[in-house]
Amino acid sequence: MDIVFDHVMEKARKAKRAAEKMAGIPGAVRDSALHAMADAIMDNRAEIVAANAKDLEQSDRYGLSKAAVDRLTLNGSRIEGMAKGLREVAAFPDPVGIITTMVQRPSGIRVGKMTVPIGLIGFIYESRPNVTADAAGLVLKSGNAILLRGGKEAIHSNIVLASLLSEAAVSKGIPEGAVSIIEMTDREGVRHMVEAAGIVDLVIPRGGKGLIKTVVDLAKVPVIKHYEGNCHVFVDRTANQDDALNIIINAKTQRPGVCNAAEKLLVHSDIASAFLPRAARELLSRGVELRGCSRARALVPEMKEAVEEDWYTEYLDLILGVKVVDSVEEAVDHINMYSSKHTEAIVTSDVLSADYFVVRVDSSSVMVNASTRFSDGGEYGLGAEIGISTDKLHARGPMGVAELTTYKWIVYGDGAVRK
Amino acid sequence: MDIVFDHVMEKARKAKRAAEKMAGIPGAVRDSALHAMADAIMDNRAEIVAANAKDLEQSDRYGLSKAAVDRLTLNGSRIEGMAKGLREVAAFPDPVGIITTMVQRPSGIRVGKMTVPIGLIGFIYESRPNVTADAAGLVLKSGNAILLRGGKEAIHSNIVLASLLSEAAVSKGIPEGAVSIIEMTDREGVRHMVEAAGIVDLVIPRGGKGLIKTVVDLAKVPVIKHYEGNCHVFVDRTANQDDALNIIINAKTQRPGVCNAAEKLLVHSDIASAFLPRAARELLSRGVELRGCSRARALVPEMKEAVEEDWYTEYLDLILGVKVVDSVEEAVDHINMYSSKHTEAIVTSDVLSADYFVVRVDSSSVMVNASTRFSDGGEYGLGAEIGISTDKLHARGPMGVAELTTYKWIVYGDGAVRK
């Protein structure tokens, strides 16, 4: 008898049954559940803070860094943030049951496509307990059920949040089990969850590279990865240099610890001697460490030497790799070779360069004369996002509630048979 | 040194480089390549037949059934069929580079979505060599590259076809390697191919359950399965009985060996005593073996007894499972429990029953008063299909060229930075 396996499978099967019932729950019921969930959070702040205090007490035991303790902490404004987020999601249009196309075929049948929930979403995350509410809100809004599996560091907070959210949802008519949490944080639990083909319809892991690699290696169910962002800004020969400077400063320094921050600057050799020293001055003065190729270092002596590994690295820090290239073609080849396929930008005045870059760069977001920092569900108009997919199938880039649906074909006849 | 691994990886890496270049190949070039491929097939019929003869000579050694030998055989009409298929695909509209949405956001950026090729498609198939041309045509049309891995029974035919197709495509400007075939048919080759994460972007297996299960178990790259079709027809209380009879006869007997044939008949108890004996008479007279639940057998004594396993089984033969149910709810529960989630139909005059069935049944195609046999790319207006996905993500049901594309986000600014 394996008690972790039994625990995960019992939770998963119950959540799956809830997912099947969710297909018939109208949008108004789902929205009223989201408001009830927000109310439950606001009405039970003391209980949430008390559970969070238990997690914080144990943070030493897990050797959490100061930043990790900060992520773990649920203070008043973070609790309000969860409630506000749920009400915002409730206000989105319903993504379920949209008939996106319907045509009459020569045979006489009418054939259409209708958006439907995916089913049971397994959501695996690390130390931010507020993600419990964000993920549950997006998943319920899109008519799915969620099976949460958070990190051990936040388990007390997560269990209290999930149970408040579940109770509130059920009180408004959401099937029991639609918001479920795996309470045992043993590592094997992740394996059992991602092996549950036929029960879990999709797994979304959010966290560090180690977690995501583990999930991908073990998974027998489909996974959409939110992997890393090794994002590039390419300053073309014809770039407006003021724009280029603003964009690289914004992309690198506005919030260096997030996945849509720029990690690499590529500069066309025709403009490098004019642009690079000026850009370097501004970046260095903002505390950015520069690591360059030999041609870049010849123009900016303060630059450290970049090694091969730098071109692959997501620093998540005030560090920037810099390389001089001789053409947009070379820039695109470099990006397609080293990028994590998240977001890349070109700064250019040349419409042919822009087109070449947009068509050839194989990343989830490709930008012309804009900062990589715009790569975000809110900025794109999706509302909240459950993640930024670096995969190519089903959903690419920011994933909002629409990306948490799939479709079915619907066919209407009048007794039609195939000839 | 592992020569199978080396062979697969060399082919895959070369095909991947071709896939990267394909992103920039215009639709007109892809279409002219498809016509050149059709010409190459028609001009080299003797060579194709000679290679196929070698496979047919060996078919005894592999113990192929008569049906398998038929599938393996490339005669004049099948060869013409391949060429005709390629020309039909060339005539489809280009699915690549379509900007499906573009909006201006409050920040000033314009944000859109553009359809793009997926990249390198690994296609694993069994004994039909003509599938080589069909798959290569659909994959090139959608701007992707293909890495073919066919069965050992057809390897001589497949190699000659792939080499003719590749040469013809390259002569029109398609990058070398965009049509590639794994020439070593050792079983480990499948494993190496489906483990090649970061090189192969998507694997589509077409074949028996054993092959698909092997691929899913081993895969580290995304897989879209064309699994089985355990399709249901539910005859509701208010069904027009003539329509119901036509539909079940068509769905069961028109082509019993295909995945959209009906395998199960569910009948509402209010109509069962009137409908079932009549339907049974017609089906039995067409050679259909009936296997029923006890209530169905009480009405039709000629029926054999259905056991639990029958409800899960795709017979692909003139056999039909029959069950009496008391409501549309019970029918839907039965379907969601036992179906392979391919195609299900309801025959009814009641709009509420129809709606309930359409919304609640979790299958790729859901039909009202139409035969399950319509579940097909051609009937739906997709043109040719590369398969019928029984998965829920990315593509569901018939997969045409549009389903062989994904999208990227495209963002245009005028030097925009994030506030």
Describe the structure.
The structure is a homodimer of 419-residue chains. With 419 residues, the first copy, chain A, is an alpha/beta fold. Chain A folds into 2 domains: 3-227 and 396-412, 3-Layer(aba) Sandwich (Aldehyde Dehydrogenase, Chain A, domain 1), CATH 3.40.605; 231-379, Aldehyde Dehydrogenase, Chain A, domain 2 (3-Layer(aba) Sandwich), CATH 3.40.309.10. Chain A is 44% helix and 20% strand. Chain A contains 16 helices and 16 strands. In chain A, the strands form 4 sheets. Chain A has a 7-stranded parallel sheet, sandwiched between helices. Chain A has a 4-stranded parallel sheet with strand order 5-4-3-6, sandwiched between helices. The first copy, chain A, has a 3-stranded antiparallel sheet with strand order 1-2-16, with no helix packed on it. In chain A, strand 14 and strand 15 (397-399) form a beta hairpin. The longest helix of chain A has 20 residues, at 3-22. The mean pLDDT of chain A is 96. Chains A and B meet through strand 2, helix 10, helix 15, strand 13 and strand 16 of A and strand 2, helix 10, helix 15, strand 13 and strand 16 of B. Strand 16 (405-416) of chain A pairs parallel with strand 13 of chain B, so a sheet runs across the interface.
